[in-house]
């Protein structure tokens, strides 16, 4: 493990420093310097038939729908009470949810909870409050706790969806509702620039698509094209010192279309000594999708753009392992890595099972279309 300096917030660490992890960190730190370093887009741009896999949610679709409907009602309610648009409320909630999921032991949520918000008891009731589980809004206020009554039942219940989400939204609004004031309010609550960045990214995604359900996924290459991949998680590599392989290599011809696997925002784009021309995309689950060794980018794509599953983002190449423009030091392939943001650190996990699922889903969908 190594420590890396992060803008404004001191050190963070990533797991064993690999090409992809290192690349991602480097560019998170200095992305303005390299962002937008577009290179000649290959002519293999192909009309990218965007057939987005419906993912594996066909079976549990009704419950998903119900859950999204419940969340939407809650967001509309908090929106009406605070003046924030529902997308911003949803973004706060979704950020909290991703952190709660990453830390189930320290941020336990009930199965039937609608909100993902978790507030520590002492933060809720106030540090010096003799009653840690106090739910009286006035005494909580007296002890400077953040707990409020969002549901109108006269109690400030930490476990209640309306109360929990409303209380955090009100904290974020302490400085005002304009974009700048709101960002400062978020920072003052989380003391974490990454949290602020994520919430603003999520809000942009919800505003762009104007819906909560953004769960689909797609295989990063057009399925059925000639490519090959196997699980290469953790195997050793040599260039740039010993590093563990954090990702899956998908071998394919130079110029094969590379597509976004998720709904997300382009967070990083440009050269990195290890990853070559690469792109990093953040999704609503707080996962960072990393595509490396490209031969070129979709020419209109820039940092901050919103993408959806199946959308062309670039082309397979063999760039990397040297100065900008270096290529051909290894056979052309897409290096695909996924990192989970756990709040202060990001961990890589093996994307192979996800890749397999997306590939199978798309094959299935294609077959069912043929038999219709
Ligand atoms: Zn790789």
Automatic annotation (TrEMBL):
The UniProt record lists the M23ase beta-sheet core domain at: 244-342
Q: Kindly indicate where the leader peptide sits in this chain.
A: 1-37
Q: What is its EC number?
A: 3.4.24.-
Report the InterPro entries cross-referenced here.
Cell_wall_metabolism_enzyme (IPR050570), Dup_hybrid_motif (IPR011055), M23ase_b-sheet_dom (IPR016047)
The entry lists its GO molecular-function terms as: hydrolase activity
Q: Which PANTHER family match?
A: L-ALA--D-GLU ENDOPEPTIDASE, PEPTIDASE-RELATED
This chain's protein is named: M23 family metallopeptidase
Organism annotation:
Cohnella soli
């Amino acid at each position: 493990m190594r420590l890396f300096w992060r803008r404004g917030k001191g050190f963070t660490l990533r797991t064993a420093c690999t090409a992809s992890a290192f690349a991602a960190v480097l560019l998170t730190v200095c992305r303005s310097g390299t962002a937008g370093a577009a290179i000649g887009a290959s002519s293999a741009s192909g009309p990218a038939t965007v057939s987005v896999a419906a993912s594996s949610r066909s079976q549990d679709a009704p419950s998903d729908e119900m859950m999204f409907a419940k969340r939407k009602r809650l967001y509309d309610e908090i929106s009406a009470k605070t003046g924030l648009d529902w997308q911003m409320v949803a973004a706060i909630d979704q950020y909290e949810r991703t952190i709660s999921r990453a830390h189930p032991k320290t941020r336990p949520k009930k199965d039937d909870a609608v909100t993902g918000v978790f507030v520590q008891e002492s933060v809720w009731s106030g540090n010096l409050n003799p009653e840690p589980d106090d739910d009286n809004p006035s005494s909580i206020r007296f002890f400077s706790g953040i707990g409020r009554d969002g549901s109108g039942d006269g109690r400030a219940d930490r476990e209640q969806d309306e109360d929990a989400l409303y209380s955090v939204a009100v904290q974020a609004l302490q400085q005002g509702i304009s974009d700048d004031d709101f960002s400062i309010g978020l920072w003052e609550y989380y003391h974490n620039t990454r949290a602020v960045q994520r919430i603003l990214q999520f809000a942009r995604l919800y505003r762009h698509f104007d819906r909560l359900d953004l769960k689909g996924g797609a295989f990063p290459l057009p399925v059925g094209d000639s490519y090959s991949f196997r699980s290469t998680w953790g195997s050793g590599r040599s260039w740039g010192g010993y590093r563990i392989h954090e990702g899956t290599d998908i071998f394919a011809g130079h110029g094969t279309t590379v597509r976004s696997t998720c709904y997300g925002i382009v967070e990083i784009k440009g050269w990195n000594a290890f990853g070559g021309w690469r792109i990093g995309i953040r999704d609503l689950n707080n996962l960072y999708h990393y595509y490396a060794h490209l031969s070129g980018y979709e020419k209109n794509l820039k940092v901050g753009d919103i993408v959806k599953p199946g959308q062309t983002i670039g082309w397979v190449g063999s760039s990397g392992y040297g100065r900008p423009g270096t290529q051909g030091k290894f056979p052309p392939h897409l290096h695909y890595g996924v990192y989970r943001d756990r709040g202060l650190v990001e961990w890589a996990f093996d994307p192979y099972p996800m890749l397999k699922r997306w590939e199978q889903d798309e094959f299935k969908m294609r077959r069912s279309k043929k038999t219709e």
